[in-house]
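Example record

One chain of 221 residues, shown exactly as stored in the release files.
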Amino acid sequence: MDFDRYAANYREVLNDSVSASGESGEYFANYKARYVARMLGGGFKGRILDYGCGIGMVTAELTKLLPRGHVQAFDQSASSIASVSPALRKKARFCSDLSELGIADVIIIANVLHHVPVPDRKSLIKQLSNRLSGTGCLVIFEHNPINPLTRAAVRDCPFDEDAVLLRSSEAINLCTGAGLHVVHRDYIVFFPRLLSWLRRIESALRWLPIGAQYAVVAQNG
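Predicted structure tokens for this chain:
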């Protein structure tokens, strides 16, 4: 997918595609960042890489929730990187050149793998694992193809026209194949805004494979 052509209106297209949930793209970006922040602790001072950052929606939330962390964000879409606000650029380092990436303590790859051709996924996860520090961890967020509402949202989203969704078992296999040890597989995002009062129990449902998305956390070493 050529995301350069969506850089200017990415936020609007995303918001439209998730409108059935009653939420905006910012809600889902914040959800992922909060998941990472809970895992790391608010005082985390390490190096974070947001790989496939797009226009920086998750990156922005990470800088708010983990202000002591050192955040770098990468996307191969130069137009997406160019659209990042000057204010956010002061809080995180953005690039579209792989040679600028260093070692990270945490690498986040959020809703990226379903755009990667299936034969290339193994090598990408291996490349990312090679960028982890000795005890670093990789956090994969992906759409859950078991959830029918997720499949509908992906089907109707213009920049998901190339998407090949992957089950959490594939994400786990990719991590173990790269020599990483899987420590968490959580299903997330269960309730739309209409049922937001039920979101307080979502953490107790992370084992239930019907969440709209899932997270796989794998550690180096």
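Notes: The mean pLDDT is 93.
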